[in-house]
Amino acid sequence: MKTRTTGFGGIALAAALVLAGVSARAGTLTPTEVAQIESALGITLSAQEKADLGAIVKPDSTPAWRTAAEARIQTHRKADLQVQVEDANGNPVPNAQVAVKLKRNAFNFGGILTLKDLTDEDGNLQISTARYRDLFRALYNSAGLDNGFKPKQRAGNEALIPGFLQWAQTNAIPVRGHLLIWPGTPSSNHLPEELPDTPTSYSILSKVQAVEAALTNGSSQATIDALKADLRQEINYMIGDWASKWNVYEWDVINETLSNYRVQNLLGDVEMAEWFKIAASNAVDPNCQLMINEYQIISARSASLDPGNYSSRKTAYMANIDFILANGGRIDRIGFQNRIKFEVPNPLDWYNRLNDFSTKYGLPMVGTEFEVRDTDPPTSTYYPYNYTEEERAQITESLLTTYYSHPLAAGLNAWTYMKNVPYSMCNYDGSVKLNGLAWYYLHRIRYNTDTNATSGIDGSATINGFKGDYDLTVTYNGNDY
């Protein structure tokens, strides 16, 4: 018996605006959903967790933003898969049972982990490393590292990266890279310095300080030019060398240019475009997507809290993107950190802001560092906001729904997978918090396809499902194919 499949690339059928997989009344998880969550995550849900999660993923009301988001998801994230079942002679086989199961969603429901936790180098885990890894795989379908790929943090990390990449490859987990250069503020130490006992040494900070000292001390132009050339050479070497070491599907080439321009002040803004060119020339995967990454853009404060915050940051971020593109830098995707603070935002603001960038550039967009962080004085000049667990989970559900609904959003990455902090999705004891449960529900239940169909008289069966990689099984006369 043979099967031919086509689809998941066209326009989806119109569908009622109902959340996929929801058959119980609003606010109530079905027994099947509870069983799946508990089995996949290795936990037992309490009655309160069931009630809280049900209220978040099956809200009683459907505001306009959600109706519009679900309509976009039906249009852009789903398509028809046609299966043609034939016998060895090419004759159609009717009444065959066709089982279609989504193996990996095309959207990156990404998780960011701490490299040393993968092998429990620092002894943080209260669970086995096997449990740590299995829980990660249940929650996320792509991975990144919080500090592990930062050149400045390579001491103690660089030797562990190959093992992490091998684990990811074995488990078919795509890996993103963060970052190639964090150009630094006058008071920051984001720039790497040569360190003892590391496989790679990049002497950036001392060279920056040498140029700054020469400018302050009134050194000759020849001396200043020589020091700048030395700094430029070292930075270019670092970016090319680091990009050539690690096989990732996307790189944050530059991080936070709106506040990190210490190097640009010395060498000129045109260096930003050169950094993208160097990354493009040296990336292990020629199809690696190159990104610029910035904070408080999509997650900028609302107009009611800070009227000019989003507009000013949007304008400045676009100016940097425009400058890099105009000077020959290849930006493939635009990154937004999405660290939520200060308030419970309106999801419509998030979508409208994504639209501002998609309309101007038409490039894929990635949520790179999502988490919901409390704001307390004196770190915040705005009023303190401490989130409840329900608010964190609700924001997680709303933001993930919003990103998934935008046709140019390629993924959203939960920055803190497991730590004993309020904003993580799991604790070091392996417990899954309410925001992690909401993330799992959307990823593995709401936006999942696991269904059956029967081939017709012509041997064909058509299934409307979420775009991604599938396992397909055809059963006929008691045999599976």
Describe the protein's architecture and organization.
Helix 2 (47-57) packs parallel to helix 13, helix 2 (47-57) crosses helix 14 and helix 12 (347-361) packs parallel to helix 13 (389-405). The protein starts with a strand and ends with a strand. The protein has 14 helices and 16 strands. Helices cover 37% and strands 20% of the residues. The protein is an alpha/beta fold. It has helices spanning 31-41, 47-57, 64-76, 115-118, 129-139, 161-170, 205-217, 221-245, 262-267, 270-282, 309-326, 347-361, 389-405, 434-446; strands spanning 2-7, 78-86, 97-105, 108-113, 142-145, 176-181, 250-255, 289-294, 333-336, 339-340, 365-372, 409-414, 450-454, 460-466, 468-476, 479-480.
Write the layout of secondary structure elements.
Layout: E1 2-7, H1 31-41, H2 47-57, H3 64-76, E2 78-86, E3 97-105, E4 108-113, H4 115-118, H5 129-139, E5 142-145, H6 161-170, E6 176-181, H7 205-217, H8 221-245, E7 250-255, H9 262-267, H10 270-282, E8 289-294, H11 309-326, E9 333-336, E10 339-340, H12 347-361, E11 365-372, H13 389-405, E12 409-414, H14 434-446, E13 450-454, E14 460-466, E15 468-476, E16 479-480
Parallel strand pairs: 4-5, 4-12, 6-7, 7-8, 8-9, 9-11, 10-11, 11-12
Antiparallel strand pairs: 1-2, 2-14, 3-13, 3-15, 15-16
Helix pairs in contact: 2-13, 2-14, 3-13, 7-8, 8-10, 10-11, 12-13, 13-14
